[in-house]
Structure formats: C-alpha cells, structure tokens
Specification:
heterodimer; A: 339 residues; 11 helices; 6 strands; elongated; B: 2 domains; four-stranded antiparallel β-sheet
C-alpha cells in the first residue's frame, strides 16, 4: 500500500521538493549578506554623532528589503493553505470524482489501511515541508524581524510564519482538506471550502484563541517615555495617549487610558493651548506626559511579553496537531462506512 | 453449499430515497450469472452492497458466507469491476498491474501480463489515454488477476462499441471457463447476457422476479397464442408471466413443464430477451384491448 500511496504522491512530492530547493537557494544566497548589511547600517548609525543619519536604526535597511521580507513571510503563511488545497482536498475527493475509489477499495486492502497509509505519508511530507520551510525562513529573517521594530515576531502576521507553528497549521490544513474532501466528494468545491475554512482559522486563532492560551500580563503603567513595561508612548492626538510595543518585542493586546479614579477614559483632559501640553515647540513630549501623570492618568495595558514566543508557539502547535489528529480519526471512521 | 450472494430483507437508502428495498436473493456459486432489470431496479446498489463498497441500511447480505468487505481475506475473495470501469488516468497500465500485485496477496502476475500482451496494450501507456474498450479490459484484467472466487461486474460493457463488447465478453467467458470462478454481471443488454451467462436473475423494483439457469428458463417458458380468454381459464397448471390480448386473441408467456395439447392454441418457443421483458413488465399480467389490427401485432409482446 505504501507503494501506491507514494506513486500517487510522487509528482506532488517532486514539485514540493523543487520549491523548497529554490527557496533554500534564494535564502542561503541572500541570508549572510542581509545580516552583514544590517550590521553595517547599525554601525553606521552608531558612529554618526547623535544618530543624525538614522532616527530609527535599521529603518532604511528594512525599507530596502521590505518586498523580500513580505514575500517570504507571505509564502510561509500561504503554505498551509496550499498543502490543504493541493494535498489534502484531492486525496479522497479526486478518487470519488473519478470513481477510482471503487477500484482501489476492491483490492485486498481495507479502506482504513488505505486511508491511514496515504494520510501517514502525505502527513509526513507536510510536516517535513512546513518544518524545513519555516526553519529556513526563521534562520534567514532575524535581521529584518529586528529591523521591523513595529512588527515584532509576536504579532499575528509574523507569529504564524516563524518557528514551529507553521508545522501545526500545515498538518491541520492537510487533515482539514482530507475531511472536507471526504464529505464534499468533489474536488473543486472541496478545495474552495478548505481554503475558506483555513483563512477563517488563520484569522480567528490570533483574534480569539491565541491571546488566552496563556494568561496575558495586565499592568498599569505610568505615562512616560521610559515606563515599566518598556512600551513606547505614541501620542496620537493632543489629548489622547496610546502606546505601542516599541522594541520590547511584546504582543500588545490592549492599551487603555484610565483617570485618577481608575475609570477608563477615551480622552485625556489637559489644556492643549497653553501649559506643558501646549504647542510650544521647545517643550518636548516628556513634560506633557509628566503633566498627565501628575493629573493621575495612567495606562492600563495587557500584553504577552516577548519571552512567551516559544511557549505560545509550542502550545498552539500542540493544539493544531491534536485537531489534525481528531480530523484524521474522523476520516478513518468515516471511510469505513461511506454514503 | 454456500451461496455466492445471499441477501435477506436487504435495503439501501440514500437520504430519503430508497435505492433498494426488502431484497431477498440467493445466487449459487459456479455460474456466470446475468443480473438484468430496468434502470433503477437496484442492480448497481445490489452489486455495491455485495462488493462491500456500500453498507446496507436494513437487512443482511453475505457473500461467499461472509460479510462483504469484512477484512482483507474477504476482499481478496471478491473481485469488483465498478460501473464505468474506473482506472487511474495518470497511472500507466504497468502501474496498474503493479498496484494489483502490491495490494493483492493472490495476484496472478503472469495472467495479468499475458492478458495485457494479448490485448496489444502498451504497458507504458497512461490509462487515461486508452480507448474505452481498453480501459474496460484493464479493469477486467485487474479483477481477474487478483484471482477472486467471485467476480462482480456492474454494467461493464455499457459504454463499449459492439466489437469491444464482444472482445470483453469473450475474455470474461474464457476466464470463467477456466473454472472455479463465479461471475455476476449486471447488464441491460440481454443479448450480451445470453451470450455469456448460464444463470439469470431478473431484478425489478428491488424484487427478484426470477432466478434460474438459462437453459431451464428457456425449456420451461412458452409463448402460447389462442382465442381470447381469461388467464385464469388456461389449460393445465401454468403460471402466467405476462398476458396481452386483442379483441379475438390472447397471447400469454407461461411457465410450466407440460406441453399444451389444446389444438386451438399455438405454442411457440420464447427467446431470452422476450422472456426477460415479460418478467420486467411491472404489472406482469396486462390486459389490453386493441381495435386496430395492425398495431395489435406490434404490441402483442411489448
């Protein structure tokens, strides 16, 4: 049975291998140069007196390589969908559509073994491809991940494209594709439905599930440029204060301003025509922030610190793997009693 | 002796539609069995159930004494060529034979190669580029080379031209003649069935109307024509299969061993096709009054 599973998967395996080799070659060729260029730019920024040449170190470097950065990240993000659509959905849907399930099911091999062998082989390939792909990208991207200071690897876009989570998504996508193909029994609808469900999962997981995989850190911090959590204060309007995660690498889930009595407020009530928060150019933002603090305003933030990257990665991979195993179990149960 | 296929109260439902209801049937081993019946009679469903492709909704079916598809051993004993003779378009003929040898412990590789060679099919050719006849032959080869005790074929020749049909059936007959193989072949082409089958099962609305060796059927069925009368008043102890009447004449297809001695009746032999049609007639005994003499002759046995 392994022979048939391999024979039917051979072409897909070959194209996946070719794609991986291309990716590996491209990343291996550009990776060392990238790291060097970033180091050079950082050194240049440090040597210029007062950092005059670069207000945000690495900004120019990131801008120069933005296209490659997003292309590579997008590739890893799309990989599960490709695996689900082109490996998962056709696995049984194509057999049903061509009627060949009747041919293979009348050989002396039980359907359970037939499906288990095929799932096992393609599953192994999915793990390998997603694992190698993510490993390559995770090795290649750190200079750019660091330079992209506003986009830490804890942010949903990068989180799902680095580390081990792509493997979790890949096996989930594969099992989902097979299960959908099993139920829909037609190739194109199965592929479309698989894609739709996967996109929904990729949106829903960071929005609804990932924040509560571990209890987020909640803290109330002072409004100042150097606060306890290391968040950067970004003033949006004259009377509004927000923070972003800055260089801390944390994943900021929410940031709310509270007044002296601890109530959440939408705006900060300080005079903006005169005083520290006025338009006097010589007064830096620090004084205004100090004035807000003096008036009792604080920031309430919830976030996952950067140190939780790997714990969250492993937990989420584990969840996806369990879901995939559940779906595979459903397929094996279902194939015994079709229609 | 164990029956090749035995069904009791067998039913299969798709959603709210019953494809087969309360089917009782027994097919003995050692025959080439023709399973005939109108479209929608449940032939495909019955073969699907017998091959283990489908699971019954109600009732029981046993094939060679065991539940269909019960395990690898049972699967090895039963060959199945599904409707449309599906093969893998992208795999070559040689790959198909390899598939068969890998997936069947009793695979007869010499037989498979011999058949492919004799058919003149290039083993390296993808199955998707074979003619319909060659595809059917490949599917049959796979069914035969696994050396089953029972081979089920669902409308294997429906899509073939007359020549390909003849070659296919020829190959099937040769394989069956080697002995030890029971064949159940569904078809709605009675001449094909007549050519290869020595046992006939007529299935109408999930019910078996008749199941007997073809020779017995032909020996015991007659068409009798005589003055018009009610079927109940026929001479002798006969079962009326179908009846049709004109103003003056009655024609019956009857089953019974004793010949008709009444000189007012003309007794004739009946061919297998007419016999099958007589059994397929849903009312079985139909009474028609025709005024137009010309059309009468055309409709005596519809």
């Amino acid at each position: 049975m392994i022979w048939l599973a391999w024979r039917q998967f051979r072409a897909s395996a070959a194209s996946a291998t070719a794609a991986l080799v291309l990716l590996a070659a491209a990343l291996a060729l550009t990776g060392p140069g990238l790291a060097e260029e970033y180091a050079t730019e950082l050194a240049a920024c440090a040597s210029v007196e007062g950092g005059g040449g670069c207000s945000v170190p690495g900004q120019r470097f990131f801008r120069d390589h933005r296209t490659a950065f997003f292309a590579v990240t997008g590739l890893v993000l799309a990989m599960p969908a490709l695996i689900g659509m082109f490996w998962g959905a056709p696995l049984v849907a194509r057999e049903f559509e061509a009627g060949t399930h009747a041919l293979v099911w009348s050989q002396s091999v039980t359907r359970t073994r037939w499906l288990a062998t095929r799932l096992g082989l393609v599953g192994l390939a999915a793990v390998t491809v997603a694992g190698l792909g993510s490993l390559l990208v995770t090795w290649w991207s750190p200079p750019l991940d660091t330079a992209a200071s506003t986009l830490s690897r804890m942010e949903p876009v990068l989180f799902a494209a680095r580390g081990v989570v792509p493997v979790g998504y890949a096996v989930l996508a594969l099992a989902l594709g097979v299960a959908v193909g099993m139920l829909v029994r037609r190739l194109l609808p199965a592929m479309a439905l698989t894609l739709a469900v996967l996109v929904a999962v990729q949106i829903a997981v960071p929005a609804l599930v990932r924040p509560s995989l571990l209890p987020p850190v909640r803290s109330t911090i002072e409004i100042s440029e150097t606060n306890a959590a290391g968040f950067r204060v970004a003033r949006v309007g004259p009377d509004r204060v927000t923070v972003d995660a800055g260089d801390t690498g944390a994943w900021l889930l929410s940031s709310r301003t509270v007044n002296a009595s601890g109530r959440v407020v939408g705006t900060v009530d300080v005079p903006t025509s005169t005083g520290p928060c006025g338009r006097s150019p010589e007064a830096g933002p620090g004084e205004c922030l100090a004035e807000m603090t003096r008036l009792g305003y604080r920031l309430q933030v919830t976030y996952h610190p950067a140190s939780r990257f790997w714990p969250l990665q492993w937990i989420e991979t584990g969840i996806h793997t369990l879901l995939a195993l559940g779906l595979a179990g459903f397929c094996l149960w279902r194939v015994r009693r079709p229609s | 002796m164990t029956a090749a296929v035995r069904a009791d109260g067998l039913g299969k439902r798709y959603g709210r539609h019953w494809a087969l209801t309360d089917c009782a049937l027994e097919i003995p081993v050692g025959h080439v069995v023709g399973l005939v019946g109108p479209n929608g009679a449940g032939k495909t469903t019955l073969l699907g159930l017998a091959s283990g492709q489908l699971a019954p909704t109600t009732g029981d079916i046993t094939v060679l004494g065991d539940r269909p598809g019960a395990g690898p051993e049972q699967l090895a004993r039963v060959g199945f060529v599904a409707q449309g003779t599906p093969v893998y378009d992208r795999l070559s003929v040689a790959d198909h034979l390899r598939l068969g040898s890998r997936l069947n412990p009793g695979w007869d590789d010499a037989l498979a190669r011999r058949r492919v060679q004799r058919l003149g099919i290039d083993p390296g050719r993808p199955a998707g580029r074979l003619s319909a006849g060659q595809r059917a032959q490949l599917a049959l080869t796979m069914g035969l080379a696994k050396r089953p005790e029972l081979l089920l074929l669902d409308e294997p020749v429906a899509a073939l031209d007359p020549l390909a049909r003849r070659e296919f059936l020829q190959g099937l007959m040769e394989a069956a003649a080697e002995g030890g193989l029971t064949v159940v072949l569904s078809s709605h082409l009675v001449p094909d069935v007549e050519r290869v089958c020595d046992y006939l099962v007529v299935l109408v609305d999930s019910r078996v109307r008749v199941a007997a060796p073809v020779d017995d059927l032909l020996a015991t069925h007659h068409r009798i024509t005589g003055p018009r009368r009610d079927p109940a008043r026929l001479p002798g102890d006969r079962h009326v299969v179908s009846a049709s009447h004109t103003d003056r004449q009655s024609t019956f297809v009857v089953r019974g061993d004793a010949p008709v001695h009444d000189p007012t009746w003309i007794t004739g032999r009946i061919g297998l096709e007419d016999l099958v049609i007589a059994y397929m007639d849903p009312t079985s005994t139909t009474v028609r009054t025709e005024r137009d003499g010309h059309r009468t002759t055309l409709r005596v046995l519809r």
